[in-house]
Every structure is written in C-alpha cells, then in structure tokens.
Amino acid sequence: MRLMNALDTTLALLAAAVLGVVAFRMLQLPPILGYLTVGILVGPFGLNVAEDGAVTHELAEFGVVFLMFSIGLEFSLSKLLAMRKDVFGLGLAQVVMTIIVSLLVGWVTATWMPGFFHIGWEGAFALGGALAMSSTAIVSKMLTERLELESQHGRKIISVLLFQDLAVVPLLILVPALATHDGNIVQTLAWASAKAVLVLVILLFVGQKVIRTWFKIVVKRRSQELFMLNLLLITLGAAWLTDKAGLSMALGAFVAGMLISETEYRHQVEEDIKPFRDVLLGLFFITIGMMLNFSVVVGNKWLVLLLFVGPLLLKLVLITGLAKVFGNSTSVSLRTGLALAQAGEFGFVLLNQIGDLHLIDSNLMQVILASMVLSMLASPLILAKSDAIVMKLSANEWMMQSLALTQIAARTMTAKKHVIIAGFGRSGQSLARLLAEEKIAYHALDLDPDRVQEAQIAGDHVSYGDAARRESLMAAGINRAAALVVTYTSTPSALKILHLVTELNPSLPVIVRSHDDTDLDKLKAAGATEVVPELMEGSLMLASHALVLLGVPLRRVVHRVQAARDARYESLRGFFHGVSDATDSPENMQIRLHTVVLSSKSQFVGKLLPELRLSELGVDVQAIRRGKNRVELTNDLILQAADVLVLRGTSEAVARAESRLLK
After folding, report:
1. C or N: which end of the chain has fewer Cβ atoms within 10 Å?
2. What is the CATH number of the domain that holds 105?
C-alpha cells in the first residue's frame, strides 16, 4: 500500500519507529538497530510506506547536525590533554591505518580485479574513513553496564572513540573536496582548508565573545521558551554559516557546541537539546535503513558476508596490534580490539555523504551498508563474549588473572573478621578510614588500576579485582570475613555479589548502597542485611539538620531518624510524583503518594476510617486533611465530604483505591 500525503508518511514512520524501538528495548538491544530495521521495512525496497524520501532525508540531516552539536558540547580540552597519549596516539593511528588499508585494498582491486567493483582512490579514502568509525552508543552503554569504564581497556576504548568523533570533522570537509577536485587536488584541498580556517576563526574568536554575552542577556529574561529558541537559532545558524561556505552543516554545529561547552550553561543546553537530537537522529537512521535494497543484498550475499567478516577481523587485528605497540598487555589489547571492531554511527554519516557524492558504485554501497548493519547487530554479542574470547586467544590471560587472585589472597591470608569493601571510590575510602580508626581490619576490591596503585602506595588495604566474581571473593577471604559492604550504586552488580555470598557464606552480613528506594525490596529479598538508599539518607540528614535549627530537641530528632531507619525508611518511601519523575513500570514500581478528595456522593462519607479496607489493595492512608487542619488517624474517625486523603502505594494500587473511594 502506498501512502500519498506527508501526514500519512509521518504517522507511518512514527508508528513503525515506536514499535521498532520497543521491540529492540525488550531484546536489550540498542535503539539504533531498531531504527535501522524500521527503515529497511518501510523503505522503497521494503513495504514502500515512506514515499516522500527527499523530504524525509533532508529532515533527517538535522539529526546529524544535533549529534555533532552534542559532540561539541562534550569536547573538553582538559579531558583531551589528560588522555592525549591514547587519544592522539592510539586513536589517530587506528583511523589513519584503517584509511591506508582501505586505499591499498582499493588499489589491489582496481589493479588485479578490474572486472570487480571499481573504486577510485577518492572513494577508497572516504570508505576507509567510514569503516574506521566504531559505535559510541553501543560500546559506551555496554561498558557502563559491565562496570568497565574505568578499567584499563575501558579507558583505551573511550580514548579511541573520542578521537573517532573528532576525526569526523576533518573527514566531512575532506570527502566533498576530494569528490569535486578538477585534477589539481592540492589546490582543491588548500581552498577547502582555507575556507574551513576562515569560518572557524569567525566562529571561535568572534562567536565566543558574542555567545557568552548573548546568553547572559537571554538568561536574564528568565524564559525557558526563549532559552530554547535561542539554542536552536545558534545551532542551526552556525550550521547555515558553514553550509553557505561550502562546508558541512555538521561542522558548524560542532563548533557551536564547542563554544557553548566553555560557558556555564553547558549542562542546561545538553538537557534541552537531547530530545531534538534523539528524535531527529532516529529519523536519520531510519533513512539509512531505507537505502538498503534487499534484492541487491541477497544477490550478493557472499560479498556481504565477506565485507561483514573482513572489516571486523581487520579492525580487530589492527587495533589489537596498535594497542600492543603502545605498550598494553595482550588481554587489554584484545579487549580494546573486540570492542571497537564493529561499524559506528558516524560511519553511516560518512557513507551517506559518499552516496550523495557518487564516489562508489551504488550496488557496492548496498553491500557495504548491509555489512555495517550486521556488524552493529553482532557488536553486543561480541562484547558479551569478550572475556571468553580473550581467555582462549591470550595465552597469559589465565596467568595474569591467577597472579591477581594470588596477590589478593596473599594480602588477606592472615585477616580474620575483616570487612570486604566492594568498590574503593569516595564512599569506599571514607568507610575504610572509619574502619581503620576503629582498628577493624578491611580489604577493598576495585577495578580502577590507577586508583588501586595509588591507594596501595598510600598504605590502604586494596587490590585490583571484581567483587562480582566468585574467585575474587574467595581470594579476599569471604569465609573468614565479618561483613561485606557494596559501596557503589549498581543493582545488577550488587545482585551478583549477593548471589555469590548466599552460595559461599550465607551467614555473612551484607550492606548494599543504592541510589534510591526503587530496588530496596529486591535487594533485601536477594539477601542484603541492610540497604542504604543515598537519597533517603540525604533526606534524613536534611530533615534532621532543619529540625535541630528550628529548636526541636536533639534527642527527639535522633529518635525520629532512628525510627525511620528501623522501619526501613518506610515513612520516607512515598512521594508525590511530578512530570519530571520517571513513570512506573513492572521493573520499576516506585511507592508514591497521591491525594484524593472525598466527594459528597462517595459511599464512604459518614463511615469509619477502618471501613475503607484499603490495606486489601496494598494502600495506606498516610494523612487526612479537613479544611486547613490535619485530623488524627484513629479507628473511630468518621469520614466527611471534602476530606482530603493522602494515599500511599504503587501507582496501580493507588489507582484502584481512588476508584473505590470515589464510587
């Protein structure tokens, strides 16, 4: 069926995008893959739903503009300087070597296989830049979930990804220049560079002063609407300026982001721009999927498979080898290569530019596009199996891990009734100091090698190790320990640790830190002796200081705080939800407060409070306000019309209770 007008096309794309993202979220896969799949299904080579492809394509380009703006916002000179060895060493080498290999492959193909797809050196260069990119969204998400961002390989991976993001800027300038040169490549590149430098000078030196002053004027008006309009004007205005100069719109957006990143409004801007970026970027990936012609892919399935496996293995070997050259161990190098072997979002941006400039054959474009989509689909699986792959490929990985476990065991061999601290960040270090002052033995496990090294030099009892691994806990003497404290806020990791403790030493008390009360019951059910939600403790401390300053006796304040803790924060575990609060879901059923005004027609007017029987629904009445006063909750309290009942329970339970009260 073909839809004829823009509204039909837009609705079809929105519906397909929602369904696709929901499906991929349920499968624990990145939404980017959902957008690509949706594009394949609704595109001209699929169901042919999106008929007005030109308009959709132009709108989707704004997604790239806002993405580059976000990259510019995250650009930090201090961060680059701190990671310069890996960013401008390993990252630069990886991108340059990938482009060189692509040029060599293009030359070999043109020389020895002229009947095969012909690629000029300009196309091979551009294609090398596209293949050099890796997926920042997929890799950073997986590293965060696996608590590996601060590990040795995690830092290498993030450094390379950072350079890849920066490398897109010159590539977006170079590729069009290469495509339009008239034989004098040096002159063409010099002219493109001169224009880029001129525009950058205008934006960076003139724009920096103007933006800071203008933002101050806008902020003083105290209008969120004006702030948002101003933000869109600056982003699109900078993109328009570079576009008129014959450069990429994305370059202007990147520079605008850089300028704003140096102001105090950076974080507010980042939050405001995020909805535009995510929605339009999703549309961009849908248009990428729409480019895929399945008939061409099926007809060249072996070539697709070759271009899927070939670049994957090439990048794995190349990045692993370069990481080794830069002085990393085999296991760290392998993990870095495995994480960065797949294609990335900016690869599609460059591939889209290559297609518009007709630098390579259209059929080859289809094959490369399909292979890049496959590599991104395979990326989560590769990362999930990276430990097992490294164990098999690295001969000394077992020895290194055994050595690390031996070192943990040697340091805790004589320890008895000690405390095992999982995580040695700020909370872990504070706990360690208090334990040391009380002459209580402890040993901490942490995955940040720099932190571990510095702490060991300072005399702290800490080792490099993952507390969520059975071997690490056994080496730390879990059978002889007096307690275990999880000092970081990661429920999945805490649940793994609790499962291992239940298996290895069921009687061991375990104290777990959590962000809020969302997972309190889940952690308790898994075996946590105590769960300390930091938001709840912050609320208690804030309230206790306020009460003392208002003249409430200290003894009474301490009693109230202790009572709240003894009741497992029960009195604090409900709050009135607003628009900004996360909605409840089966995985995240938060306790909430909700007010209900008893109407004169309610069946409970004139009835006693116990007759409500709301406890059957899992709801408590926290308070009742009558007029301007709160009334005492007693069993002989008779309800009246216009009474305001404050209910406490889950969203579903509160909704059922409200329905009963208003009947």
Report:
1. N
2. 1.20.1530.20
**How do residues 620-645 score in pLDDT, each as one tens digit?**
887 888 887 778 888 888 888 888 88
* Number of structural domains in the chain: 4
Residues 345 and 403 in one domain: no
Partners of 624 in the beta sheet?
631, 645
Residue in the block written with tokens 């697709």: 304
- Is 550 contained in some domain? yes
- Which domain, by its residues, includes 229? 6-391
pLDDT classification of 364: cutoffs 50, 70, 90:
confident
**What digits encode the pLDDT tens for the residues 217-266?**
887 877 878 888 888 888 888 888 877 776 677 777 877 887 777 777 77
Whether residue 581 lies inside any domain: the answer is no
Same domain, 449 and 565: no
Q: Copy the structure tokens of residue 23.
A: 């499906």
Task: Give the relative orientation of helices 224-244 and 266-290 as an angle to the nearest 10 degrees.
Answer: 50
Q: Give the separation between CA 72 and CA 630, rounded to whole angstroms.
A: 53
- Residue 555, CB-side half-sphere exposure with 13 Å CA sphere: 0
Same domain for 212 and 113, yes or no, is yes
Rounded Cα distance between 133 and 130, Å, is 6
Distances from the Cα of 324 to the Cαs of 69, 102, 321, 456, in angstroms? 34, 22, 5, 26
* Joined tokens for residue 9: 């096309």
Tokens describing residue 390: 């490294």
